[in-house]
Amino acid sequence: MAMERTISLDIETKNLDMEEEGLSFSDPKGWEVACVGVYIRNGAWEDRMAFAANPATINRDALATQISVQPLEALAKRLWRWLDEGYTLIAHNGDGFDIPILSKHYIEGGADCARVFEAFQPQYVDTCSTLKDLHGKRYHLQKLIKGTLGADESKLMPAANAPIEWNRGNYHEVLDYCISDCEYTYKIYQYGVEFGHVLYEEDGVINEVPVNW
Predict the structure, then answer these.
(1) How far apart are the first and last CA of the chain?
(2) What number is the average pLDDT over the span 197-212?
């Protein structure tokens, strides 16, 4: 198998109350990006990056993640560079959540990435959308982690906790969680590439799920 270059991307948002703010998971309006995590693989080489609207505050935090946080405005430029270098972009439910939000302008809570995401389409895999198109149901990342990678593996926190911890100033915890999800997404993707299927845990049963990404 040829060496593949991949970047896995995930976002966390600042929003605390969907009902009060009139938010919908199917509509990017009103959502505000807190941070973006990226996990980079080039063969055996790996790296991790993070982007946020308040990098100076996060980088001053004595408890901050060891990963230096870059301005959210730098994300689009980085994505263009990765596209030119032949990387494949991977996300889990990127089509339904991350990418529409990041495609918005900064003043709308996004990262102004619409053009680069459009250019990435031939080099893009949404593991969630692909599985839903193939099998007609939503496959949750946590259950893919448990099935494919083992019962001892798990997301670092419930998704609903991330905006709460971010607004409390626990940036390092949220960044670690976000980048961990990026790594898990890559591992699920890579397992599917190697074996032609992934494994999904549901009600204590492990099911084999064919993939074609």
Answers:
(1) 14
(2) 96
Say whether domain 5-208 belongs to CATH 3.30.420.10.
Answer: yes
pLDDT, tens only, 140-190: 999 999 999 999 999 999 999 999 999 999 998 999 999 999 999 999 999
In terms of DSSP bridges, do strands 69-71 and 88-91 run parallel, antiparallel, or are they unpaired? Answer: unpaired
Paired strand residues for 206: 201
Q: Phi-psi bin for 205: left (phi > 0), alpha (psi -120 to 50), beta? A: beta
Confidence of residue 68 (pLDDT cuts 50, 70, 90): confident
Q: Report CA-CA distances (Å) from 139 to 27, 57, 65, 145, 185.
A: 20, 36, 30, 11, 12
What are the phi and psi torsion angles at 116 (to 5°)?
-70, -35
Structure tokens at 98: 């991350």
At 7 the three-state DSSP class reads strand
- ∠93-67-159 over CA atoms, to 5°? 35
Within 10 angstroms of residue 138's Cβ, the number of other Cβ atoms is 11
Residue whose C-alpha is closest to residue 71's, from 106, 115, 28: 106
pLDDT of residue 142: 97
Q: Name the pLDDT band for 54 (thresholds 50, 70, 90).
A: confident
CA dihedral 68, 71, 73, 74 (to 10 degrees): -30
Pair 159, 13: CB distance under 8 Å:
no
